[in-house]
Design brief:
The complex is a heterodimer of chains A (489) and B (95). By secondary structure, chain A is of the alpha+beta class. Chain A is 39% helix and 19% strand. The relative contact order of chain A is 0.10. Classes of the chains: A alpha+beta (489), B mainly alpha (95).
């Protein structure tokens, strides 16, 4: 564990302030059809083409729940180590907006499908547990487009009625870094489970951020503000920084913080009050008379529990034990399921530790440069393992391996073939190496004398010459050994 | 519990119902008498009774996750206040 200490505080003139953050994450459920209708959920379709009479709230239509969405919520709850409620109720949350044709959102209020749980974060100052308050199922709203026409708003209802999981955290987060780690962890867990694709660009994962501040050491919470609908981690972090500073300034000037809903303006990098939401908290929840309570058989929950995949925390433990990785390496390699799958395939066929080093170094750098996911890697796990083995066995040096790697990226070829056809094999035959070294020593008698007289820095010069003459292929370790031996004699 | 005029106006606003100022007085009276009638129920002791969300002793009916609907844009958009081939068009709502 690192010795770093947590130290995110806002410094005011009258002291240090702690920032208290809670998140309401809205995660779109991965399912083919919507929560209460048979319309498709596919992203990017023509506007209003995935809308049924239910989604557009025609009179007399009855919602029927999608059993897969219920299972996805249960899976996610289990992945968050949470209590699954056998009995839950759908309520109507009433508010008026153009992209909500029903005039209410079907949500869960008093009796959510999932209760308290927890998520573990790996921070530089140790691991930290973040409490989950609840997870409930609800409908997504449609999308309003304000910039297509100067005097009108355009509404696309394709998103209307897609299932969302609202995951509410306890106010346990204390810094933008912790928010970053928390969102990434949630995303990772849901992607492992296959319950949400976590695609923030497409809006599959968004959050409302609750922020308050208090003097360091205070145990009571300050008045909080809710920043609505932030759709990237970067913006969440910027919004928190701005909002915390704003609240500290108010307190220091003896002013009161109003509990209110604010929005984050990404262009101006500031939060501001949403006056239109004045009545927003008057939701007049009541049980939806169109829907009976949702009762889950314990057997269904148990069966889903049994069928869960290995999740990142467990996998990390296993990677440390089974592959001898350190906590940092294991953490990086389990962050995405696809990355961990790739690593395991490579590790099966090659040196486990060296595979991790090369993956996290050259492979990740290359993927990052090209903006590729590991699933689109130009180098297959099998070929990557062969490259790692060629380094491990001493067939090629690390320096040559980088060249082979580059060629593999361009050609997608087998590393063995590349090493063979380009004559890149490392010179590891002691006799051959001795021959080369003797040749160099006899050409540079003056430098050998200087070396023997104590100018030991010249050792590097001899190594350089050997590399030059061998075209970079001399085995460095062997070269060192033989050079030392011959220079002594 | 009783309702005053302000409460009536607030509820009307939330429900998007336009109420004539002249009618507020009589509405307040009407609604209060309805409330009084309902409040008789409070005389019953319900401490040990679970709230009833449905009179049917059944669980929620569910459906399989299949695409069986949509692609009826023309029909749907007939309800748009203004005409457009792709979108519902409504008066500008901006934050």
């Amino acid at each position: 564990m690192s010795k770093e200490k947590f130290d995110y505080f806002i410094k005011g003139e009258k002291g240090k302030y702690e920032v208290v953050i809670g998140l309401e994450v809205h995660a779109q459920v991965l399912s083919k059809s919507k929560l209460f209708s048979g319309s498709s959920t596919k992203f990017g379709a023509d506007p209003n083409n995935q809308v049924s009479l239910i989604d557009s709230a025609f009179p007399g239509m009855l919602p029927v729940i999608n059993e897969e969405c219920v299972k996805q919520a249960v899976r996610t709850g289990l992945g968050l180590n949470a209590k699954i409620n056998n009995y839950s109720v759908f309520d109507r949350k009433n508010y008026f907006y153009a992209d909500l044709p029903q005039g209410y959102q079907i949500s869960q209020y008093k009796n959510p499908i999932v209760g308290e749980g927890k998520v573990l974060l790996d921070m530089p100052y140790g691991s930290k547990e973040i409490g989950i308050e609840r997870l409930h199922l609800e409908q997504d709203a449609g999308k309003s487009i304000h910039d297509m026409d100067p005097s009108n708003t355009y509404v696309d209802l394709n998103r209307s009625g897609i299932a969302l999981m609202e995951i509410v955290s306890k106010p346990d987060l204390r810094s933008p870094d912790e928010v970053n780690a928390y969102i990434k962890k949630l995303r990772s867990i849901m992607r492992y489970l296959g319950t949400c694709d976590g695609n923030m660009q497409e809006g599959s994962l968004r959050a409302d951020v609750n922020v308050s501040v208090r003097k360091e050491g205070d145990t009571n919470f300050g008045t909080r503000c809710e920043i609505k609908n932030v759709n990237s981690i970067k913006f969440m972090q910027m919004a928190i920084e701005y909002e915390a500073a704003r609240q500290v300034e108010l307190i220091e000037n003896g002013k009161k913080i109003d509990q209110e809903t604010r929005l984050f303006d990404t262009k101006k990098n500031e939060t501001r009050s949403m006056r239109s939401k004045e009545d927003a908290h008057d939701y007049r929840y009541f049980p939806d008379p169109d829907l009976l309570p949702l009762k889950l058989e314990q057997k269904l929950i148990d069966d889903l529990k049994k069928s869960l995949p290995e999740l990142p925390d467990k996998k990390k433990e296993r990677f440390v034990k089974e592959y001898g990785l350190n906590a940092y390496e294991a953490n990086v390699l389990v962050s995405e399921k696809e990355i961990s799958d790739y690593y395991e395939e490579v590790a099966k066929l090659s040196d486990k530790k060296l595979a991790a080093t090369w993956m996290m170094g050259d492979l990740f750098a290359m993927l990052n440069d090209r903006g590729l996911d590991i699933s689109k890697s130009p180098i297959s796990a099998k070929y990557f393992a062969e490259l790692v083995q060629a380094i491990k066995s001493g067939e090629i040096s690390g320096r040559i391996a980088k060249e082979v790697f580059e060629i593999m990226v361009e050609s997608g070829d087998n590393p063995k073939k590349i090493i063979e056809s380009k004559g890149m094999k490392q010179q590891s035959d002691p006799k051959e190496l001795e021959k080369i070294i003797n040749e160099i020593l006899s050409k540079n008698k003056d430098k050998v004398d200087q070396y023997k007289a104590g100018k030991e820095k010249l050792f590097g010069f001899f190594v350089g010459q050997v590399m030059k003459l061998s075209g970079g292929k001399a085995n460095p370790q062997l070269t060192n050994e033989i050079l030392k031996k011959l220079l002594k004699g | 519990m009783s309702l005053d005029k302000e409460k009536i106006k607030h509820v009307a606003k939330l429900a998007r119902i336009s109420v004539d100022e002249a009618k507020v007085e009589s509405l307040t009276k009407d609604l209060n008498s309805i409330f009084k009638f309902i409040e008789q129920l409070n005389e019953l002791n319900t401490d040990k009774v679970e709230p009833l969300t449905s009179i049917l002793n059944q669980s929620l009916r569910s459906r399989k996750d299949e695409i069986s609907d949509g692609k009826i844009r023309e029909k749907i958009l007939k309800n748009s206040p203004k005409e457009n081939e792709e979108f519902f068009v409504v008066p500008k709502v901006v934050e």
